[in-house]
Structures are given as structure tokens and as C-alpha cells.
Design brief:
This protein is an alpha+beta fold. It is built from 13 helices and four strands. It folds into two domains: 188 residues, Alpha-Beta Plaits, CATH 3.30.70.1290; 81 residues, no CATH class. The relative contact order is 0.12. Pfam families: Y1_Tnp. One of its GO terms (molecular function) is transposase activity.
Length: 287
């Protein structure tokens, strides 16, 4: 029986993970990683896609990628087939190089783009290869630190952090230095099969501010931002949550979307807004 077709939509951002067959180290040499990176560049120029980040490890690689016209499946098939031929030729072997189909997890509403980028860049740290992301050559971390908009399209994420490029890079460096909470380790539980089920973005939705952008504009520090995103119930963060929820509603988001972005339930957001309205109503009669 053939495999189910993946459902893909242009404009969707995907976190792609591809592992070696039986998790074997298929990128254990400098030339292996260099070959794969060169082919990523080649197909980016040939097909056209936005690359937000990447890391090439010894037995797998990660891409944060957004397709525009060609389907992701086509690009991944060309990339993996090209590398498989190279690998088998150099090693004088035959057989599978990659372990099944790649995982492709749609990034909904750009909620976790920064956290996902940090997760990708901190892979070498979790593998005890280095102590800092910038020490690992085979990732896009240094492209962000140096503001190099070439293979990786760093402008989008850096502009999200700040319109001032120097401040944006400083914020990026600060965010990358935070300890990884390993929220995305659960991706390994999805299995080898993955299906992109993202709904095709509507024109009006694309023009909305991102939820994380609305959250940052409340004046949170990066530490507070991460606390709110993790669902912290500190009272000192309540005011910012209220402001965030009201602005998100104005931008057309549902209570479920607003709540999910900060690890709460839609009921909790509803109560938060009701409490704020009650407070305003009480203040109007205080005189």
C-alpha cells in the first residue's frame, strides 16, 4: 500500500527533520556537511524558498523552511536523493541512507519561531559538541549574529525582534543564551510519518501582527516574555497579559489562539478579560 500524500499549502513554515537510516552518522565528515549545505543553497536558488534556519548534525539535520511555489516534498526528494547518491558513491556502498520520510511539522501562527530557532541552534550543545551555539560551524546561528542575509533569510526574524539591527542582534544573542527548555523534544514522539495539515493562509490573516509580536510590544523583557509563554501565573505579568489579549482580539485572533500562544486555556483568557472589564467598571464609580 502506498503512503498517504502529504497535504501542503504555499506560504506555510515547516520545521523539517531528516535522520540517517537507523540514526547512523551519515554526516560525520566535513565534506559530507559541506556537500549537503551546498545542495541546500543550490535548490534554494533553483526552486525558491525562504530558509529561516538550519543545523547539520552527525546523524540528522533540521531546516526551518517556507515554500512559495514548489511543494516541500519535491525539494526534499531532490535534496535527499542527491545526497544519497553522493554518500553511496563516496562510501562505495548501496542501500538506504535516510531513515524513512522526513518529518515536516507546520509552524502555526509563527508562535514558536524564536523558540524553534533556539532549539535548532542549540542542538550541538545538547549533543555536548560545544558550549555555545556560535562555536558550531554547521548551523545558521552565526548568520544571525553577523546579520548576514544570504543563504539564511535573517532579516525577517531580526526585524521581528527590533527595527534597529544592532538592538535586534543583541536581543537575538540574549535569547539564544537562555537555557533550552526542551519543549520541542516531544517532536520525536510523532514518529517517522508526518503530515502538514496547516490551513492555507488567508490574505487578511497574513497582514495581521504575529501574536508574539503583540506580546513583545506590551513591554516585556525577554525573561518575562519566556515566563508568559510558559504559562507563568506571576501577578506582575497579569497587566501585560491583559494588554496582549485585548490587542490580539483587535487583530482578529480567537480566544483559543490567544490562549494557546501563552500556554493558557481560552477560559482563562476569558476570565482575565472579564476581570479587567469589571475593574474598569468599578473604577468608573469610584468617585
Amino acid at each position: 500500500m502506498g503512503r498517504d500524500l502529504r497535504v501542503e499549502h504555499p506560504g506555510t513554515v515547516y520545521h523539517v527533520i531528516q535522520r540517517g537510516n537507523n540514526r547512523e552518522f551519515i554526516f560525520d565528515k566535513y565534506d559530507d556537511k559541506a556537500f549537503l549545505l551546498d545542495k541546500i543553497r543550490f535548490y534554494k536558488q533553483r526552486v525558491g524558498f525562504t530558509l529561516f534556519g538550519y543545523v547539520i548534525m552527525g546523524n540528522h539535520y533540521h531546516l526551518i523552511i517556507q515554500m512559495h511555489h514548489s511543494p516541500l516534498q519535491k525539494v526534499m526528494q531532490m535534496l535527499n536523493n542527491c545526497y544519497s547518491k553522493y554518500y553511496n558513491s563516496v562510501r562505495k556502498r548501496t542501500g538506504h541512507v535516510f531513515g524513512g520520510r522526513y518529518k515536516a511539522i507546520p509552524v502555526q501562527e509563527d508562535r514558536y519561531m524564536l523558540t524553534l530557532l533556539r532549539y535548532v541552534h542549540q542542538n550541538p550543545i545538547r549533543a555536548n559538541i560545544c558550549k555555545h551555539p556560535w562555536e558550531y560551524y554547521w548551523s545558521s546561528d552565526n548568520a544571525y549574529r553577523r546579520s548576514i542575509n544570504d543563504l539564511v533569510d535573517v532579516d525577517i526574524m531580526l526585524n521581528f525582534l527590533s527595527p534597529n539591527r544592532r538592538k535586534a542582534v543583541e536581543k537575538y544573542v540574549q535569547f539564544m543564551s537562555l537555557e533550552e527548555s526542551d519543549d520541542f523534544e516531544s517532536l520525536d514522539l510523532i514518529g517517522d510519518e508526518s503530515y502538514a495539515l496547516a490551513v492555507k493562509p488567508k490574505r487578511e490573516v497574513l497582514q495581521r501582527k504575529r501574536l508574539d509580536e503583540i506580546l513583545i510590544e506590551t513591554g516585556l523583557t525577554l525573561e518575562e516574555f519566556n515566563l508568559v509563554k510558559s504559562g507563568s501565573r506571576k501577578r506582575s505579568l497579569t497587566s501585560c497579559k491583559e494588554t496582549y489579549a485585548k490587542e490580539a482580539l483587535k487583530n482578529g485572533y480567537t480566544l483559543k489562539e490567544i490562549a494557546g500562544n501563552i500556554s493558557l486555556t481560552d477560559v482563562a483568557i476569558h476570565k482575565l478579560l472579564q476581570k479587567e472589564r469589571h475593574s474598569v467598571s468599578t473604577d468608573n464609580f469610584a468617585d
